[in-house]
Amino acid sequence: MTKGKHLPAFIADHKRTLLVLVGFFAAITDGFAQQATKQGSFSVSEPGIVIMILLFLLPLLVGIIILVYKLKNLFRRIEKSEVKQEARNFATYLNELDEEQLALLQKRKINLEYRTKANELSGTLSPKDARGLVVASIEHVSPQFIAPKRKALPRPAIDPRLSKLILWFIGTATFWLVFGTTIGEYLGIKFVAPDVDQVSWLSFGRLRPIHTNSVFWGWSSLAMLGLAYYVVPMVSNTSINSIKHGWLSLMLINASVVLGTVFLAAGINNGGGEFREYIWPVMLLFAIGIVLTLRNFFLTVANRKTKEIYVSNWYIIAATMFVIVISIIAYVPYWQNGLGESIIQGYYMHQGVGMWFMLFTLGLIYYFLPQQLNRPIYSYSLGILAFWAQILFYTVIGTHHFIFSSIPWSLQTTAIVGSVGMVIPVVAGTANFLLTFRGAWNKLRDSYTLPFFLVGIIFYFTGSLQGTVEAFRYTNLLWHFTDFTVAHSHITMYGIISFFMWAGIYAMVPRLTGKEPPQLLVGAHFWIALIGLMFYNIPLMIGGTLKGLSWMEGKPFIDSVVLMALTGYGGQ
Question: What pTM was estimated for this model as a whole?
Answer without folding.
Answer: 0.77
